[in-house]
Design goal:
By secondary structure, this protein is of the alpha+beta class. The chain has a single domain (3-84), classed as 2-Layer Sandwich (Alpha-Beta Plaits). The chain has 2 helices and 4 strands. A 4-stranded antiparallel β-sheet has the order 2-3-1-4, with helices on one face.
């Protein structure tokens, strides 16, 4: 059965957690089909909270490893959506 797998990441401190998060995303770049990241930015403030949405494709085992590795990062909340096709 084919599926569309989406992983949502809430980063509570972008400055502190960006390095570990980027390292995991780079390690599993081969399963990331699309990546969208955003945070609030104004002339006065750049928010420390950010959200990343990933569409994953490829080996489900590698997708699971990525999700597990991200879940181990302190200050990062991981949510998953899987749509069967």
């Amino acid at each position: 059965m084919k599926e569309v797998r989406i992983i949502g990441l809430l980063i509570t401190d972008r400055i502190k957690e960006a390095g570990l998060t980027q390292k995991a995303l780079t390690k599993y770049a081969h399963v990331i089909k699309s990546r969208l990241g955003f945070h609030e930015v104004t002339e006065d403030v750049c928010s420390r909270v950010g959200v990343i949405i990933l569409q994953l494709a490829g080996n489900p085992e590698d997708c699971g490893k990525l999700e597990s590795e991200l879940a181990q990062i302190r200050g990062l909340e991981v949510q998953r959506m899987i749509f069967g096709l």
